[in-house]
Amino acid sequence: MKNTYGIKTSMANIKDYIPIVGESTIEDLQLIAEKLKGKVIQNVNSTALGGGVAEILNRMVPLLRELGVDTRWDQIKGDEAFFEVTKKFHNALHGRRQDISRHDFNIFLDTSSRNINNMDIYGDIVFIHDPQPIALVKKRKKNKWLWRCHIDVSSPNKHVWRFLMDFIAKYDSAVFSSPNFSRRLPIKQFLIAPSIDPLSDKNKELSEETIASVLAKYNVPRDKPIVTQISRFDPLKDPIGVIEAYKLVKKYIDCILVLAGGTASDDPEGARVLEEVRKRAADDKDIHVLLLPQSDIDVNALQRASTVIVQKSLREGFGLTVAEALWKAKPVVASHTGGIPLQIKHKYSGLLCHSIEGAAFAIKQLLNSPEYAKKLGLNGKEHIKNNFLLTRHLREYMLLFLSTYHKEDVVYL
Ligand code: UDP
After folding, report:
1. How many domains does the chain have?
2. 234 vs 271: CA distance, rounded Å
3. What is the CA(186)–ligand 1 centre distance, in A?
4. Which residue among 108, 118, 278, 291 has the highest number of C-beta atoms inside a 10 angstrom radius?
5. What is the pLDDT of residues 19-62, one digit of tens each?
6. CATH number for the domain including 370?
């Protein structure tokens, strides 16, 4: 298949990963996959496009299928009111102050009941992603149920967490991204970090010509250093904080800020935040606020054209954008929150920050010291290669699926 840039879009085969991770890693995956023959894995989440969960499933599902594991992916249905509520849950679980009324909980339960009645649950293993579809576990029969939590629930709103616990307790196991996120639960827990696909359109090498054509399409000039944050327009990604940090840097270094993001069908906050960002950026022609279509090549090219990548989240699950930037050997400035410290060791594979001023200081340091920036980027790439590629993730998910058929309480991945 060709995309609008006339370049082949990737659907890499499992063997294509051998030059990156080695033959034995792929053989290992094939051996484990054999043991899952005959089992149907049914993933359920709330959106096919936008955000990290969809990003991972889009690559995970076809590769598991190629390995011979019958893996499917369905989405629940919900209207705007439902996704308003689940976004409130998301924010509250991340520890943000959020008013949630009895009416909100009822909206959640009503939509969940409709999905429980209407959705076909056929998996031997039902793999539920995040809180939106969590209530489907009421359909539990003799099959296995796993709840995959992508959110940093280290200090959740107690009200929401207690509400969800009634559902979580009905699962066989829960999966979290980082040791810090695990909670006291009456069920087994697994810690599995997310990953990126090095061969997807989002992360594969691009020609200079493609990068240039994407930048031209968005009218982003390349005559100054480019500082970029790519994220959904979400208050927790703190795009306004990024603008403030950029303004501090701009007093000393002439640079461009790119704030690029798309929308996700399960995130109703996007339009409001985008408008606020546009207002804040209006007085500076060097700030480029880009509303992206769903285009992995565009994201890839913007990341590759950047001098420094920022991820100034106030809360974060894992932060795939950080892994994507590091894989491209980019120097990254990112907040010390959620799963970001798993990816960035401060002053080794990037710079961590705790405030707007801290972010500005770090961006300035990287723009002023290209050699140092380059070293951090290269270390970052190595770190992602060793820890956060899709092949490691595939292996751990398959072992997780197998473990649901074992009686032992402790499973080492
Ligand atoms: N993303 C994208 N287009 C956008 C904004 C984000 O493709 O306009 C991608 C981004 O490259 C990453 C994912 O969406 O792969 C976001 O994952 P992350 O873990 O960073 O944040 P989330 O949105 O899940 O909170």
Report:
1. 2
2. 9
3. 32
4. 108
5. 999 999 999 999 999 999 999 999 999 998 878 899 899 999 99
6. 3.40.50.2000
* Calpha distance 136→126 (Å, rounded): 10
Within a domain: 202 = no
The answer as to whether 27 is a domain residue is: yes
Residues 80, 214, single domain; the answer is: no
Residues 299 and 212 both lie in one domain: yes
The reported pLDDT for the residue numbered 176 is 96
CB of 52 closer than 6 A to ligand 1? yes
Ligand 1 atom with minimal separation from the 322 CA = 20
- Residues 244, 138 share a domain: no
**Nearest atom (ligand 1) to Cα of 261:** 8
Contact 195, 389 (CB under 8 A): yes
C-beta of 55 in contact with ligand 1 (< 6 A): yes
Q: State mean pLDDT over 64-76.
A: 97
Q: For the whole model, what pTM was predicted?
A: 0.92
The span from the CA of 285 to the CA of 34, in Å, is 56
Q: Which residue has the higher pLDDT, 138 or 411?
A: 138
Segment 144-161, tens digit of pLDDT: 999 999 999 999 999 999
Taking Cα atoms as reference points, which of 306, 394, 360 lies closest to residue 59?
394
What range does the domain containing 181 cover? 14-195+389-403
Does the pLDDT of residue 412 top 90, yes or no? no
Are 371 and 331 in the same domain?
yes
Residues 34 and 64 in one domain: yes
Same domain, 261 and 354: yes
Pocket test for ligand 1, best of 55, 200, 263, 296 (most atoms within 8 A of CB): 55
Residue 406's pLDDT is 82
- d(CA 264, CA 117) in angstroms, rounded, equals 25
